[in-house]
């Protein structure tokens, strides 16, 4: 006891000190970001209004920006030419060479500065996202703020550990060696991101790229360029606050040729968008053989077994489908409900949907905002009409609030459709809209077959009173992410990789896998006890190879990998015997020559 008592006291004292240090907040400088030109003053911007983008040459082409909820003109950004894109990439490449030498301590400070700004300016960030994409403030908070803060928090706590050299076993033949994996920056990451979450879609690849020592050029969507250019200022201000190279991160704007130029000049491409464009990016990336990560949307299955709390799951289901209202590529788009509770479930979601009101998200208390892309409601009408023509039935729709005449086409009412089947386009094509098609199933085997009957494979959600049953169903669905008794929870766990299979793409961002995907993964082997023990080529296989060279190799292989310990020992004796004989022969030859 006398021996352990001092150790116990030291351990307790150490724990108390760590706890006290935890209570002391780190010193994080504040940054100021000019938002004067993006705050809504109630006036419509003039047609020649230019959104200021730092360090950018103005091109002759323009990307016009509007509020989808009101169609108010916001201004324009330049559509960069291929030459201008390549110029930006080279600037980032020079900055990255300096940044790659920085410490993880400095990189963490960059993250803390961003986190501090985000937390203090949540309303501003969400309002700008809402104006540019039509989503509500609540949806913006859930999808833009929380996910980004969680990403930063994960990188702060685990990022360095994931990028430190990882030692691996060296195996039997290389016991005298040390084997490790090193993670080095790739150089310049090119990210082409979608419009649905303009803040998070910029910050998500940027955070991983910069923390792993890379530079990044982000081509933002022409449908959300106005907000993206402001979010870029936040990044620039944070870089300046730590004295980082100002050109380490660049945001570029434009159309298809802008993105194509980025693909041809970056060292890796991350793309978030449609399967069609994803295939073109793969084709272009093949010219320079650079790695590609593709997140191409989905048609997630939402499965409800008969043993659930129907009221609880109905609320989650409506949230899942409204998250798909033109805002979330990971939304649930196919609902499969066990026939024993089908009527009850349909009744519950119908009641909730009828209470939902869509309208300009900043003009009143609305549950749902506008569709971001112009004329997307025509596509949704086409999917619904095809289903109706094939026997489906609309049983509930939400209502509209006060919508201006110029923005009517930007809205689509939340809709519940029953009597659907897989012959309908609505159950096969990605809708990206607030439509809930509900289909019955009778057995677990049937619902697994239905869920897998899709060209997409991004995610799924499975609900059951038996967690093991839900887990078993989810394990059989061919997709990249799965939530058990929840929806989209996997994305809030930023330690997990995110991505899909089939037409939902390949590669992962998020988690260890996503962070290391921004790296050159290098395998390294070195002598464990250098210079005392070095690799020596055994005499029988030195040049010129001895007559018993192959016999020696046979015995060596069996000595190392034989299944029986006795066989291995016997082979080892043979190896030692041949080495001894070879050394004796060599010595004799040497004496004879002398």
Automatic annotation (TrEMBL):
Segments forming a coiled coil: none
Keyword Oxidoreductase: yes
Keywords: Oxidoreductase
Active site: 295
Keyword Ion transport applies: no
Aldehyde dehydrogenase domain: residues covered: 58-524
Domain of life from the UniProt record: Eukaryota
Parts of the chain that traverse the membrane: none
GO molecular function: oxidoreductase activity, acting on the aldehyde or oxo group of donors, NAD or NADP as acceptor
InterPro entries noted in UniProt: Ald_DH/histidinol_DH, Ald_DH_C, Ald_DH_CS_CYS, Ald_DH_CS_GLU, Ald_DH_N, Aldehyde_DH_dom
Similarity field: Belongs to the aldehyde dehydrogenase family.
Protein name: Aldehyde dehydrogenase domain-containing protein
């Amino acid at each position: 006891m006398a021996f352990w008592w001092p150790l116990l006291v030291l351990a307790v004292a150490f724990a108390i000190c760590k706890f006290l240090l935890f209570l002391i907040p780190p010193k994080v400088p504040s940054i100021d970001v000019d938002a004067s030109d993006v705050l809504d003053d109630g006036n419509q911007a003039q047609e020649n209004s230019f959104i200021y983008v730092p360090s950018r040459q103005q091109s002759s082409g323009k990307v016009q920006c509007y509020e989808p909820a009101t169609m108010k003109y916001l201004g324009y950004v330049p559509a960069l030419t291929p030459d201008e894109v390549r110029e930006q990439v080279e600037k980032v490449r020079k900055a990255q060479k300096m940044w790659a030498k920085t410490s993880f301590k400095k990189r963490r400070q960059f993250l803390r500065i961003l986190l501090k700004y985000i937390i203090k300016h949540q309303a501003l960030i969400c309002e700008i996202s809402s104006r540019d994409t039509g989503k509500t403030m609540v949806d913006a908070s859930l999808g833009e703020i929380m996910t980004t803060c969680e990403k930063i928090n994960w990188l702060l706590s685990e990022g360095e550990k994931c990028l430190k050299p990882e030692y691996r076993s060296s195996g039997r033949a290389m016991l005298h060696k040390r084997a490790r994996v090193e993670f080095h920056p790739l150089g310049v990451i090119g990210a082409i991101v979608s419009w649905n979450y303009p803040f998070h879609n910029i910050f998500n690849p940027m955070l991983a790229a910069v923390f792993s020592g890379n530079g990044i050029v982000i081509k933002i969507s022409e449908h959300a360029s106005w907000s993206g250019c402001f979010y870029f200022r936040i990044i620039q201000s944070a870089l300046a606050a730590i004295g980082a190279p100002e050109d380490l991160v660049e945001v570029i704007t434009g159309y298809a040729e802008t993105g194509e130029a980025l693909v041809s000049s970056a060292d890796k491409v991350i793309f978030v968008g449609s399967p069609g464009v994803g295939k073109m990016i793969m084709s272009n990336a093949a010219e320079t053989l650079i790695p590609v990560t593709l997140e191409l949307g989905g048609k997630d299955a939402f499965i409800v077994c008969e043993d659930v709390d129907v009221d609880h799951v109905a609320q989650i289901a409506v949230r899942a489908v409204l998250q798909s209202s033109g805002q979330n590529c990971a939304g649930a788009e196919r609902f499969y409900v066990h026939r024993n509770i089908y009527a009850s479930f349909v009744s519950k979601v119908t009641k909730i949907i009828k209470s939902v009101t869509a309208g300009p998200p900043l003009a009143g208390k609305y549950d749902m905002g506008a569709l971001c892309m112009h004329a997307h409601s025509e596509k949704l009408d086409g999917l619904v009409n095809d289903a109706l023509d094939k026997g489906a039935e609309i049983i509930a729709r939400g209502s509209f609030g006060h919508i201006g005449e110029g923005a009517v086409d930007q809205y689509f009412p939340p809709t519940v459709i029953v009597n659907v089947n897989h012959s309908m386009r609505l159950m096969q094509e990605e809708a990206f809209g607030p439509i809930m098609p509900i289909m019955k199933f009778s057995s677990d085997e049937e619902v697994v077959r239905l869920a897998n009957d899709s060209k997409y494979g991004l995610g799924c959600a499975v609900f059951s009173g038996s967690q093991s049953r839900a887990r078993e169903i989810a394990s059989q669905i061919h997709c990249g992410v799965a939530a058990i008794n929840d929806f989209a929870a996997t994305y809030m766990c930023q330690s997990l990789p995110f991505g899909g299979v089939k037409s939902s793409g390949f590669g992962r961002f998020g988690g260890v896998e996503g962070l290391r995907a921004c790296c050159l993964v290098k395998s390294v082997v070195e002598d464990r006890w250098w210079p005392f023990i070095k690799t020596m080529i055994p005499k029988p296989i030195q040049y010129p190879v001895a007559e018993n060279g192959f016999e020696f190799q046979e015995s060596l292989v069996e000595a190392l990998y034989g299944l029986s310990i006795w066989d291995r020992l016997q082979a080892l004796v043979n190896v030692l015997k041949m080495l001894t004989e070879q050394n004796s022969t060599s010595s004799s030859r040497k004496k004879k020559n002398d």
